[in-house]
Amino acid sequence: MKSGSVTGRRNRLYFLAMVGPGLVVMLADTDAGSVVTAAQSGAVWGYKLLLLQFVLVPILYMIQELTVRLGLVSGKGHGELIREHFGKGWAWVSVSTLLVASLGALVTEFAGVAGAGLLFGIPVRLSVGMMVVLLSLVAWTGSYLSVERIAILIGSFELAFLLVAWWAHPSPAAMLHGLTQVPWRQPGYLYLAAANVGAVIMPWMVFYQQSAVVDKGLKAKDLRMARRDTAWGAVITQLIMGGVLVATAATIGVNRPGEALGTVQQIADALTPFLGKTVGTVLFALGMVGAALVAAIVVSLAAAWGIGEVSGYRRSLEHNPRQAPWFYAIYTAGLVLGGLLVVSGVNLVNLSVAVQVMNALLLPIVLGFLYLLALKALPRPYRLHGIYAVVVGVVVAAASIFGVYAVVSEIF
Q1: The whole model's pTM is what?
Q2: In terms of residue numbers, what domain contains 11?
């Protein structure tokens, strides 16, 4: 018994040491834009899109597990592997579109923090400026491990959304009824379903997690624990998405169904009559800020790592700014540019549409390369093959089609 308990304790300590890249990228997945999408889903369709949140758990895991497998076995990032197997031109195509999508995502995160700040009377310039300084210092003054732990701590504030869902007192009978209702023939339902898929499967997640496991120094022997880290992250992020959906479905969806929710202020204002001014505002603001900050860290790092993998400059959080000046410069430049766009008064609606178009174009490219690399870039024991390869191929194709469908629906 004593030997078994010691072994179990060692396994737990080993898992805690390995956990990080999967959990961080999944917490970032529930970013400000995803929160707005989940809130709108609950307000318009009640619980009828709740089942989709749980269906997306294995799909999300399936895609991100490929990035873990490629990173641990090859010891290289996503952009670097594309360059080696498909040429530098295709690598630059993939990374260039990643940059545009990353900038759009950063604008969304800054807008989310600015909206949360306005709930407490904090000016947009001040909240955005504080976010740029804070996130710059997090990367410039730490190692990979410290940045990862800070990101997990910040992202844990997203769990406030689960408390919001609990306080909303959802009806179990209504939830069960909603889980069995899938009005798939209605265009509005299909559009929001596609938007939820696009909100869960982000192109920059592939670049981030593959580079993160490499920067952390994980090897092929750590694959089992890295997969577990990814699986736990997939479950947690979809529980958070489900929590936001349940909170709005139990309040707005019952009392004012179909109400438009496009900003942080609108969502918070709609929830506070049911949750109370203090509880609704504070908890929702905590969740939104946590989601936006961790996503901004992940998106900025994904861009800096991606460019470095194609151009060849030093790209590790284990190097200080003097040793890797381009890496830190690009990381910070993304934050500054995203913040400037939010405070400049640019038309964020038009920018969001443009970003959505770029994401739709980027998703097939990134997922396509991910799938092809899993088929050809790995040694035989780790290579994607057999029935599972077919299943993954179907999932990749479906996710790409849904992304394009969301854009076409938005435009036409």
Answers
A1: 0.86
A2: 2-343
